[in-house]
Amino acid sequence: MTIKDYCLEISKLLKEANHEKSKAFIQLGNLYVTHKEDAVSSIKELYGGMGSFNDLVLYKDGKVDTEANEKLTALRENLYKAVLSEIIELRS
């Protein structure tokens, strides 16, 4: 999967959970197509600090949605790995 693909899959999960950031990941995926460096930088910034993308937990009907969070964790980890690979590629 590409960085855009990961962003779109994350957006779908967030939309299903009625999370306000679902559109932001569509925008990041589209930005990746037109401005890779800007998108990669923006995505990487999402992962730092308290209350960051790493801390996001999805709920359904007021309860933690374990299945959605497992998918989100896998997508989040794979997106981060893809971003780091892209950073290395852009620097070389």
Which helices and strands occur, and which strands form pairs?
Layout: H1 3-16, H2 22-34, H3 36-45, E1 59-60, E2 63-64, H4 66-91
Antiparallel strand pairs: 1-2
Helix pairs in contact: 1-2, 1-4, 2-3, 3-4
Distance between the termini: 22 Å
Low-pLDDT runs of 5+ residues are: none
Shape: elongated
Give me the number of helical elements: 4
Mean pLDDT: 94
Q: Output the radius of gyration.
A: 13 Å
Name the strands of the widest sheet in spatial order.
Answer: 1-2
Q: In the residues, how many domains can be counted?
A: 1
Would you mind describing this structure in some detail?
The protein is mainly alpha-helical and 92 residues long. It has a two-stranded antiparallel sheet with strand order 1-2. It contains four helices and two strands, in the order H-H-H-E-E-H. A hairpin with a 2-residue loop joins strand 1 and strand 2 (63-64). The longest helix has 26 residues, at 66-91. Helices cover 68% and strands 4% of the residues.
Task: Name its key features.
92 residues; single chain; mainly alpha; two-stranded antiparallel sheet; DUF6966 domain-containing protein
Summarize the structure.
Residues 25-63 form the DUF6966 domain. The protein has 92 residues and is mostly helical.
